Amino acid sequence: MKSLKKVFTIFILCCFCLCHISCGDIVEEAIRPAAIPMARALSEADYYYYYDGQKVPLSSIPDMVYLSTKDSSELSILVKEIANTAFVSDVVIRKGESGYWTVVKVHDTQRKSESDNIIASLRKKYGYVYVAPVFGVENKPVPTSEYFYVKVLDNPDSEMVLKEFSSKNNVEIVKPVDYMTGWYIMKAPFSSDGLSMSNLYYESGKFEYVDPAFMFDFKVETCMSEVGEAYWCIER
Question: pLDDT averaged over the chain?
Answer without folding.
Answer: 76
